[in-house]
Design brief:
The chain has 323 residues and is an alpha/beta fold. The chain has helices at 10-15, 32-40, 54-63, 75-78, 83-89, 104-112, 124-133, 155-169, 184-192, 202-205, 214-220, 233-237, 254-259, 263-268, 270-283, 306-322, and strands at 21-23, 45-50, 69-74, 95-99, 116-121, 137-141, 147-149, 174-178, 197-200, 228-231, 247-251. The protein has 16 helices and eleven strands. The longest helix is centred in the last third of the chain and has 17 residues, at 306-322. The protein is globular, with a radius of gyration of 18 Å. The chain starts with 9 loop residues before the first helix and ends with a helix.
Length: 323
């Protein structure tokens, strides 16, 4: 199901879309089926390459079928396994998104493969680095967003500042807004702020195609934005060496309540906490599972097919922008 009326922006013109909506490449959530559903509905689906799992990546590109999709990576992790970029580029992606690190070492390879370079940024300095590296698209992500980022800036102020910077220094570079965008109201707001489109994560996390257990989705949509928190607890448990400037926005639960603010004690008793976490993964236990959603979870009340969601968001935004 595609939108009744195309919503045209510089992004849709550049990438051949009918709606300026891009799926956030959520690690182990944005699989091939979800990416294809977003693309087939008129947006651009990005597979969540995340930290990098070769077998998973190959399988999910296969699950996308013939749909025009892209892929996203955690840049500092990709630097440790640069061969994974070749896996993605072998599938002729529309774009590669790089987040949380210097994109420079990868830009030429991506461009040589005919793909666009999307860089997720969280500050003006990040944006300048990405523009210098040759990014085609900037994703200005505010602290409202789920998953890793910073709490330094909000979407509402970051997006217009980045849009103005790009217009002044690299006018052909496109800008996407990210963080808190779930419906036509927030998509219209992003476009009004100067973005060419939106990168949407949490709302697509709660779709039928997302690789999230349904009981966990049902649990999460009972929450409000107040129930999220920025923390590094799960990074410690997973022994994932994130740069200190980044924390993850997650749904608060008993595990986080117990360990947040007590990270030194967590490090000292890590094996027990890891056993609890692994058990939660096996049994889909929301009290101890890492549930990665943003503040926008409070605006989500149902689990919707991606195509239906895009149809609704696009038409609502179109109506708001033309009336």
């Amino acid at each position: 199901m595609s939108a009744n009326t195309p919503l045209t922006t510089r992004l849709t013109t550049a990438l051949g879309l009918t709606t300026p909506v891009v799926l956030a490449p959520m690690d182990l959530v944005s699989g091939g089926r979800l990416a294809a559903a977003v693309t087939n509905a008129g947006g651009l689906g990005l597979i969540g390459g995340g930290y990098g799992d070769r077998d998973w990546l190959i399988r999910e590109f296969a699950n996308a079928g013939q749909a025009r999709v892209g892929c996203g990576f955690i840049t500092w992790s990709l630097a440790r396994r640069p061969d994974l970029l070749d896996v993605a580029l072998d599938h002729n992606p529309v774009a590669i998104m790089l987040s949380f690190g210097d994109p420079t070492p990868f830009v030429d390879r991506i461009h040589a493969a005919g793909a666009k370079v999307i860089c997720q940024i969280h500050s003006v300095e990040d944006a300048r680095q990405a523009l210098s590296a040759g990014a085609d698209i900037l994703v200005a992500q505010g602290g409202e967003a789920g998953g890793h980022g910073t709490a330094a800036r909000s979407t509402f102020t970051l997006v217009p500042e980045i849009a103005d910077l790009a217009a002044a220094t690299a006018p052909d570079t496109l800008v996407l807004a990210a963080g808190g965008i779930t419906d036509g109201r927030t998509l219209a707001a992003a476009l009004t702020l100067g973005a060419d489109g939106a990168l949407i994560g949490t709302r697509f996390w709660a779709t039928t195609e997302a690789l999230v257990p349904t009981p966990i989705q049902q649990h999460a949509i009972e929450a409000t934005g107040d129930d999220t928190i920025r923390t590094s607890v799960y990074d410690l448990v997973r022994e994932s060496p994130w740069p200190t400037r980044y924390t993850g926005r997650l749904l608060r639960n008993a595990f986080i309540t117990h360990w947040h603010g007590h990270e030194s004690h967590l490090a000292a008793t890590l094996s027990d906490a890891q056993a609890t976490y692994r058990n939660a993964q096996t049994h889909h236990d929301p009290d101890n599972l890492n549930i990665i959603v943003g503040e926008a979870i409070g605006q989500i009340h149902d689990i919707t097919p991606a195509a239906e969601l895009i149809h609704t968001i696009t038409n609502q935004a179109q109506n708001l922008l033309t009336t």
